[in-house]
């Protein structure tokens, strides 16, 4: 009787689980295909110097559109890709594509000063990673100092060879920024030893800046910490004027968010660079801090 109950339970729950597992396996398989089938593309989100209003760079963000299904959010497929290992292929494609775009924009005189590219832990763990990055950048003809790699704080904490790998990457000439900073519990002594150039303040702390009295405490603390370690600060996910004003007062260096520019395709980016370049030549003071 008990056994029958168990079986009944088993039969009751099994279909739901397989459904989920099947969808996952399917997405993973499709994702590997996506690279080959050219279903991935990149968008670029502008970053502006808060004090001068100048465009200082863009962040490449991967997009996946499944035929007959539509867009799959990166917050959904990147974690899957990391689990199944497909992130290595996806990551290689992203690096190549971002460098190719940068090379094309440089040739057209429409390039932003810098291209930031997200790197995941599976890539960083690979012993040959820095050499591969060097090869890809060299083959593209883009100067290494135009490339910046973003690595999330939690990843740096997880990867045992992180410091060594970051040193190798920096030796190539690329810059390194810590993404989603403030969410990964780095100890201050560890942070001091990390060969990095920038901290990107996680969006969640920017969201908390609702104009109230104490809500800026964490953002203020991160900016102060960065300053004392000689690191630049980038605020991500800035959507409102009051957030930007707070960041300006606290002397955060760079802003990235919907307020100043949404992620866009490379053609639109080229036009933006042209427009800002012309504006900057026309009247220096009138450079708009927006895309
Ligand atoms: P991230 O690196 O922290 O990227 C910033 C995310 O915030 C992007 O989401 C961007 O579209 C979004 N964002 C920018 N400004 C605003 C804003 O003002 N408000 C709000 N609400 N959101 C804003 P997206 O494109 O969905 O990417 C999510 C995450 O997926 C990224 O977070 C990154 O961790 C990962 N990702 C994206 N592209 C790649 C990639 O090529 N490789 C790897 N390994 N991860 C990637
Ligand atoms: Mg990022
Ligand atoms: Mg980020
Ligand atoms: Mg983030």
From TrEMBL:
It is found in: Membrane. It comes from the Bacteria. Residues 24-277 form the EAL domain. This is EAL domain-containing protein.
């Amino acid at each position: 009787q008990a056994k029958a109950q168990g079986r009944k339970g088993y039969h009751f729950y099994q279909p739901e689980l397989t459904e989920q597992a099947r969808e996952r396996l399917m997405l993973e398989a499709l994702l590997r295909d996506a690279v080959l089938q050219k279903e991935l593309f990149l968008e670029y989100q502008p970053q502006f110097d808060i004090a001068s209003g100048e465009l200082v760079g863009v962040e490449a963000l991967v997009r996946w559109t499944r035929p007959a299904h539509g867009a799959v959010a990166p917050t959904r497929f990147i974690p899957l890709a990391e689990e199944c290992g497909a992130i290595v292929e996806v990551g290689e494609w992203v690096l190549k594509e971002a460098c190719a775009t940068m090379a094309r924009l440089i040739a057209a005189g429409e390039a932003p000063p810098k291209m930031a590219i997200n790197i995941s832990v599976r890539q960083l763990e690979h012993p040959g990673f820095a050499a591969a990055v060097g090869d890809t950048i060299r083959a593209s003809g883009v100067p290494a100092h135009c490339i910046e790699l973003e690595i999330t704080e939690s990843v740096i904490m997880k990867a045992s060879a992180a410091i060594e790998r970051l040193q190798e990457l920096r030796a190539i000439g690329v810059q390194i920024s810590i993404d989603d900073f403030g969410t990964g519990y780095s100890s201050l002594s560890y942070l001091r030893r990390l060969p990095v150039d920038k901290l990107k303040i996680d969006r969640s702390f920017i969201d908390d800046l609702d104009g109230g009295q104490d809500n800026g405490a964490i953002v203020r603390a991160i900016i102060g910490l960065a300053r004392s370690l000689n690191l630049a600060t980038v605020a991500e996910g800035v959507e409102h004027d009051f957030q930007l004003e707070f960041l300006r007062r606290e002397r955060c260096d760079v802003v990235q968010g919907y307020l100043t520019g949404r992620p866009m395709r490379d053609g639109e980016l080229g036009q933006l660079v042209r427009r800002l370049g012309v504006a900057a030549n026309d009247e220096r003071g009138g450079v708009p801090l927006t895309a």
